[in-house]
């Protein structure tokens, strides 16, 4: 995960090796490499620039009274800024509703159905909740079957209505079913398309308006880098979602989406997907991710 970025940052810090103190020249040289590492990781240009400007100010600032060596100081400043960039604290999900309704949105193939299952499993085991999965992808019968397979695997009930072509009606019926059967969390899996289009946006927006979810989570494949960020922006403009789910981090050697999304849409990454299995889900902790990146 993010191996390229880790390697390149490590090389950037080597610039300061052997230097007794921080100077404008060695800071500039190091940060040039840091910026290059961020851009190679597919971090948005503006984000990378702001990042290095902030680190530069802090490194050269009067208030840096420290016994750290220049290399160590730079690692610390970069780490602090990476944490900030990824949102600072971990963000939870709102489970206060009765039931709490969680709407999943995102492109086809982003990992929505898989993640819906992972989240249901996570809530069931970690938070002793009784989730219900609701299948609202009315275009692909295979997607409904897939959710049933996932539900069977984790022992979570799936609500679907194969003959019904109205996702709003299915979502509402699913919530009623949850109320009648003691489910306290409802996870609504929706249809995605291969790219952002008006029809999909109208549909997800209609569902969103009709069911007023406690949480709307935008699911995106982290391997798509800047495209992930642009898609996040398009969905956020329509849904004003609560948080991002970054899937397929296990295959992402670059990390651009993880590092740019928060600064572009100002919404936290809440969970990450790290594999195809139902337990490959983690709460997103910016500090742990920064530790991982800096090795
Ligand atoms: P959807 O169309 O958005 O519902 O996407 P799916 O849930 O069907 O996922 C698309 C593909 O990505 C499937 O083959 C999943 O097994 C795979 N997938 C989903 N999440 C992850 C993940 O975190 N890591 C990996 N390696 N594969 C994933």
TrEMBL record:
Belongs to the GTP-binding SRP family. SRP54 subfamily. It catalyses: GTP + H2O = GDP + phosphate + H(+). It comes from Galbibacter orientalis DSM 19592. This is Signal recognition particle protein. GTP binds at residues 106-113, 189-193, 247-250. One of its GO terms (molecular function) is GTPase activity. Composed of three domains: the N-terminal N domain, which is responsible for interactions with the ribosome, the central G domain, which binds GTP, and the C-terminal M domain, which binds the RNA and the signal sequence of the RNC. Residues 268-281 form the SRP54-type proteins GTP-binding domain. Keywords: Cytoplasm, GTP-binding, Hydrolase, Nucleotide-binding, Ribonucleoprotein, RNA-binding, Signal recognition particle. Coiled coil: none annotated. Its EC number is 3.6.5.4. GO terms for cellular component: signal recognition particle. One of its GO terms (biological process) is SRP-dependent cotranslational protein targeting to membrane.
């Amino acid at each position: 995960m993010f191996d390229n970025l880790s390697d390149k940052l490590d090389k950037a810090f080597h610039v300061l090796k052997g230097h007794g103190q921080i100077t404008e020249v060695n800071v500039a040289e190091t940060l040039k490499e840091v910026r290059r590492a961020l851009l190679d990781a597919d971090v948005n240009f503006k984000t990378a620039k702001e990042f290095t400007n902030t680190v530069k100010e802090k490194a050269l600032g009067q208030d840096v009274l420290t016994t750290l060596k220049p290399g160590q100081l730079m690692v610390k400043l970069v780490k602090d800024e990476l944490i900030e960039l990824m949102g600072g604290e971990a963000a939870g999900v709102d489970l206060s509703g009765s039931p709490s309704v969680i709407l999943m949105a995102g492109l086809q193939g982003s990992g929505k159905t898989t993640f819906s299952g992972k989240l249901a499993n996570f809530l069931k085991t970690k938070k002793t909740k009784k989730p219900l999965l609701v299948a609202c992808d009315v275009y692909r019968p295979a997607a409904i079957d897939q959710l049933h397979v996932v539900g069977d695997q984790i022992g979570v009930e799936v609500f679907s209505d194969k003959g019904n072509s109205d996702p709003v009606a299915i979502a509402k019926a699913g919530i009623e079913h949850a109320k009648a059967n003691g489910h306290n969390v409802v996870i609504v899996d929706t249809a995605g398309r291969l790219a952002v289009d008006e029809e999909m946006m109208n549909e997800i927006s209609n569902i969103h308006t009709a069911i007023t979810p406690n949480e709307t989570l935008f699911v995106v494949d982290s391997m798509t880098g800047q495209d992930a960020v642009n898609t996040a922006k398009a969905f956020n403009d329509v849904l004003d979602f609560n948080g991002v789910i970054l899937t397929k981090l296990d295959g992402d050697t670059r990390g651009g989406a993880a590092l740019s999304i928060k600064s572009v849409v100002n919404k936290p990454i809440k969970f990450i997907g790290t594999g195809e299995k139902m337990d490959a889900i983690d709460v997103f902790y910016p500090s742990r991710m920064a530790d991982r990146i800096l090795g």
